[in-house]
Design a protein that fits this description.
The chain is of the alpha/beta class. It is built from 12 helices and 6 strands. The radius of gyration is 19 Å and the shape is globular.
Length: about 260
């Protein structure tokens, strides 16, 4: 009887986990995923995995698509969660229709370069910035951004010193050529066709205090996919790290509904 009682929590946890698809997290521009620990804990009972990117190989979106495909779950349903840089990548991976994919979540992300300009100016500005980054990127990323700048653009002024130090370390650990390549990929991103052809539900997690990706990014998503669900979450650009509980609640709620809807079709 004691053994049966001890087994019940494990069985219950397994049953609850089966009610949700696995969340596969794809990180932001630095490509390091270990900062998702708090989100993983908050996502319970949903299971969670993440895929980090090489720190010393300058891989673009074309290279990262097979890299991610090779590391996806081999059984069960899953949702691709693309944070910032990884939003276009998540859409391109989803376009390959991997077995088990039931949804895509974009967290503080974009489908074209997230420049806060009128559409007529965005494309030429992106081309000009691409040339600048290609020339000066290795020097620009030779040292990680200062901690005040990380607070301003990514983590928020009220982020803990520990979180900012971890972020500073994560960026410092990535080779300058890699950061340069990923910035160029952002400035040349275009996942509109993949979004149009996406045949699974999609949710957009919008950060209320995002200083890098403006609200127009979601408006572009919903213009192409009117059924896209918006979850507005209080927090800065690093939304999954700064607001893990709220993000987990939004992902669990949406993914449960999305999976149920697909089963009823």
């Amino acid at each position: 009887l004691l053994a049966q009682d001890q087994a019940r929590p494990t069985c219950r946890s397994a049953y609850l986990a089966m009610a949700f698809p696995t969340m596969v997290l794809l990180p932001g521009m630095d490509g390091t995923a270990w900062r998702f620990q708090a989100l993983k804990a908050a996502l319970w009972p949903a299971s969670c995995e993440w895929i980090g990117y090489p720190r010393d190989e300058a891989l673009g979106y074309d290279d990262l698509v097979p890299f991610v495909l090779d590391r996806l779950p081999t059984s069960g349903d899953f949702v691709l969660v693309g944070e910032s840089f990884s939003g276009p990548l998540a859409l391109r991976v989803a376009a390959r229709r991997p077995l088990g994919l039931v949804g895509v979540a974009l967290a503080a992300s974009f489908v074209t370069p997230p420049l806060p300009l009128f559409s007529a100016l965005a494309a030429p500005a992106a081309r000009w910035l691409s040339r600048l980054v290609a020339f000066a990127g290795p020097l620009l990323f030779a040292r990680p951004p200062s901690r005040p700048l990380l607070r301003l653009l990514l983590a928020g002024w009220d982020a803990s010193d520990v979180m900012v130090a971890e972020l500073h370390y994560s960026i410092a650990a990535v080779a300058p050529k890699v950061m340069t390549k990923r910035m160029l990929e952002i400035l040349q991103a275009d996942a509109r066709q993949e979004l149009l052809e996406l045949d699974v539900p999609i949710v957009y997690l919008q950060a209320s205090a995002d200083r890098l990706v403006r609200p127009c990014a979601f408006r572009q998503v919903v213009a192409l996919r009117p059924d896209a669900h918006l979850a507005r979450v209080s927090g800065p650009h690093l939304l999954l790290e700064r607001s893990p509980v709220a993000c987990a609640e939004a992902l669990r709620s949406w993914s449960g509904d999305a999976l149920l809807g697909r089963q009823e079709k």
